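Form P-L/3: holo structure prediction, ligand calcium ion.
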Amino acid sequence: MLIRAMLFSLTAVLAVTFSATAAARETYQFTLAETWGPNTPILGETTRRMAAMVERMSAGRLQIRIDSANKHKAPFGIFNMVKAGRYDMGHTASYYYKGLIPNAMYFTTVPFGMIAPEQYAWFYFGDGMELMKKVYRPHGLLSFPGGNTGNQMGGWFREEINSLEDLQGLKMRTPGFAGEVMAEVGVAVTNIPPGDLYTALERGTIDALEWVGPALDFQMGFHQIAKHYYSGWQEPAAEVQFLVNEKSWSRLPEDLKEILRVAMRTAAYDMYAQSMHLSGEAWAKMKDNYPDVSHQTFPPAVIDALRAATEKLLAEAAASDELASDIINSQRSYLQQIRQWTNISDKAYLNSISTATGD
Ligand code: CA
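OUTPUT (holo model):
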């Protein structure tokens, strides 16, 4: 009896071990669609870095094939394609889908909002991830921070901006929520695909534009036409995102889910560090090679008007939708608290050690 029982349990152990080994050997193929064109610096490097990490950490059990915009032809269709299951994953920016899901845009950046370290703290240790889940879950999607550009520049202007009057009728490319804010203060806002921006500025179709920051602006050549480079207010911490179809995610065994989650988070943080690195490098080069490019900040009256317009639009959004109100209030109260710390740490440090030469 005893021997039979022992044999039985040995067989059971072997069966369990065998099925666990089979699962451990099973290979999963995921597809990812990115908004970016092939070989896009920083953004495209982020998806490839993530996929390479996943493949190495899983010893090849999870492989991710990446399709760039030239392949899938729908740079702003990532949300719909991942939702429909045409792709398992996407790499894009949530504010591109403002028209489909208005509450998505708060997870990229908010004018006058948090800077990157504050926003990461809100995502991972505040309510950010939970609120983002509430926005995406009804669409069968999971969303994860996918990399930060760092503080974005306010843009390239052909003429100096000295007053609010200088903004009246100014033709400028600014997409998303910031575009709505600029329209409120009298700017004639347009959105133009990235590939056509240089020509539009050169031909005078637009008088000004904003793109990202030195890391990505320099190679676009805007500095050859517009010489006034303004610090920003509109995208203090633009976070792109990884989208994952929930059904695809649930097919993965637990260890592969964790590998994917860790690789996305690491690649996102790498993008932030790389953006910082390349912007530093590009701005130093720009100062050396184009001394006629001048760095500017908007005058206080312009900043005040942009801030008032931002507050007005946020109040309207909060009044029209309960979840929008929850997100806006969460970001606002988190910012109020964490900014006090930023002010006595990073800001006070930089102010207290700054010299007349601005170093
Ligand atoms: Ca931008």
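COMMENT: The radius of gyration is 24 Å.
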